[in-house]
Amino acid sequence: MLRITLLLSLVFISHASHALTLDSTPVPGGIAVITLPADADPATARYRDRKVLVTRNDGNTLAVIGLPLATETGRHYLKVKNRQGQMQSIGFQVEDKAYEEQHITITDKRKVNPEKRDMERITRESQQIKTALRHWSAQEDVVVTFRKPVEGPTSSPFGLRRFFNEQARNPHSGLDIAAAEGTPIRAPAPGTVLDTGDFFFNGNTVLLDHGQGLVTMYCHMSKIDVTPGQTLNSGDILGEVGMTGRVTGPHLHWGVSLNDARIDPLLLLPEEAHSPTLSAETTP
């Protein structure tokens, strides 16, 4: 694991306005930090044909790449053009990471095996959420030093291989934080509200755009206090913790997406903000 201190500013700006200690963790669900060649055109940097977040640090240009949970181990490549328009490939190694299993009992069986009448809604909502998570905005100053959106222990870590009523489902793509219903949820960094909604699985949900493909999601809320297009500062209230959607108790599901890859939110928190984890047989 490589620890790099980044001074966060877009490559087109000469000064830096945020300091960040970031772990380069090239594993499925992690982040790879790649130094670009001096003659690279940062605006052309792509991983899997998607734009990536680019910053400056100590005279170097760095690409910060989100790695999906389904990423295979082995050699991967960031592609970028030089100033003459020639394509270059920069290789990096992705290592394996083993995530634990979690077995959860859901009493509402429709939330495990939806009925035919539910599927049209689920399909529509899935596309709405995917559109928001793929959003890109060319923001000049991206803050990636996050604060926790709500205080509380971790009830389900990121990446768990999940089984609902002993049926295998997709890995856990976010971080669940246990908190009492009605607890305020705060923006972890400045951002703009991309979308909100009441979804079949996620319940009341807010999605925030932080710039350059960095998007966060907040689910199972009891109350939403923001509207799409609203600009927020770090610490502004989004709404309140609840237990809407597919849950077994009140908690916040907090997701982080970088270049449309779901990554572990803990990677963007200072180590002192990490909370203890409850037993695996807890809130989904």
Give a concise summary:
Helix content is 6%, strand content 42%. With 284 residues, it is mainly beta. The chain has 2 domains: 93 residues, Sandwich (Immunoglobulin-like), CATH 2.60.40; 173 residues, Glucose Permease (Domain IIA) (Distorted Sandwich).
Structure description:
The protein has 284 residues and is mainly beta. It folds into two domains: 2-94, Sandwich (Immunoglobulin-like), CATH 2.60.40.1590; 101-273, Distorted Sandwich (Glucose Permease (Domain IIA)), CATH 2.70.70. The protein is built from one helix and 22 strands. The strands form six sheets. Strands 11, 14, 15, 16, 17, 18, 19, 20, 21 and 22 form a ten-stranded antiparallel sheet that branches. It has a three-stranded antiparallel sheet with strand order 3-7-6, with no helix packed on it. A hairpin with a 5-residue loop joins strand 8 and strand 9. The longest helix has 18 residues, at 116-133. The protein is globular, with a radius of gyration of 19 Å.
Topology:
Layout: E1 2-8, E2 18-24, E3 31-35, E4 46-47, E5 50-51, E6 53-57, E7 60-66, E8 74-81, E9 87-94, E10 101-104, H1 116-133, E11 154-156, E12 161-164, E13 167-168, E14 175-178, E15 184-186, E16 191-199, E17 203-211, E18 214-224, E19 231-232, E20 237-241, E21 251-258, E22 261-263
Parallel strand pairs: 10-12
Antiparallel strand pairs: 1-2, 3-7, 4-5, 6-7, 8-9, 11-14, 12-13, 14-21, 15-20, 16-17, 16-19, 17-18, 18-20, 18-21, 21-22
